[in-house]
Amino acid sequence: MAGTPQYIRNLNENLIMDALITQGTMSRADISRQTGLSKPTVSLAVEHLIDRNLVREMGPADNAQGRKATLIRFNETAYYVCGIDIGATRIRIALSDLNGEIIAYRTYPMVVQGAYERGEATMLELLRSHMNELLDENHLNWDQIQCIGFGIPGVVLPESGRINRIVDPLAGLEEAFSLESLSGAFPCEVILENDVNLAALGEYRSGAAAGYPLFVFFSIGTGTGAGIMVHGQLLRGLGGLTGEIAEMLVDDGRRLEEVLSADGLMQLAKDYLDQHDELLLEATDSGADDLHRHLTPEKLFEAARSGEVEALDILQQYSQKIASALRQISVVLAPDLIVLGGGVGGNGDVLLPLLRQIISEQFPVQPQLICSKLGEQAVVTGAVQVAIQQTMLNLQEAME
Prior knowledge:
- The protein has 400 residues and is α/β, with parallel strands linked by helices.
- Helices cover 47% and strands 20% of the residues.
- It has 16 helices and 15 strands.
- Strands 6-5-4-7-10 form a five-stranded mixed sheet, with helices on both faces. Strands 13-12-11-14-15 form a five-stranded mixed sheet, with helices on both faces. A three-stranded antiparallel sheet has the order 1-3-2.
- A hairpin with a 6-residue loop joins β8 and β9 (163-164).
- The chain is elongated, with a radius of gyration of 25 Å.
């Protein structure tokens, strides 16, 4: 097909699409100057793109004199994409246009009991019902959804799209969340990726790590993981296992995830309170026994913010354990930046001062350390980005 009129027309249309996406609103003359295409060629290609609803006319420009040029722009609402973050305790869904503008965002509780009892179809039905609800609320239908990006807290095997090493609360649902199962449950293209990798991508594209050539997203929550990006590309490694820092071993032989996860933090707090037999009265308004039963990471961080000495001591010890992992990452990769995220790691107001002091005093390599800018939306933001990328690739291929 190379060299045929059809091929050349498709190439021209792709050039025009790229120019409009990069530059925004342009006149036909602007497009001609930008792309080097003749004005008649631009006009013919633009009309074809308008017919396909991929670009639209926006009305006359504000030029001071002469005939007003009609402005053209990429139609970001020609189609939509979704990003879905399947977490251990929450399902987060973002609906986005093709410019990456999130137009709707919802959070739902993760309910796994019924899925275990009735099989994987239950979880897929739950996800599909959430999507149907979101589309109905925004007056959209499935024909307008081009792609869904899913983030999963486990290793996604690159060749098969199957899941390995999923976080404990979701153990048993690996098959339900495989690429094959998700693709069969939704009437559009599906992409499946590790959640921390997507969070790293989200932070790079529109968050705290924008423009950094080498950075690490370090997520601490129900699980522990890292996403590593070099010049805008995710490192994946053998079997997609790059960044599986959960498998690092600490001094006592435990896995890093056992130490740093939310459960690990709670075990550290319990051990501390058992040893000291002291209370966090202002944070809990109850005695030590009640504290042991009901202490959560959220309550612990709130106690630290209110100045409770015991909570600060616990988090100081916890920060030393985080720093030990950060040191190993830093001396191996020497990243420009490390971004902390996740349900526990996102408490930057408490953790960052403690960690920065340790880094300045003890680290031979001292990357900048900041907290996630996107917070709980980091994964869905990255999922939206990969869905848009795939959609635009598909649209370009459809022109060829």
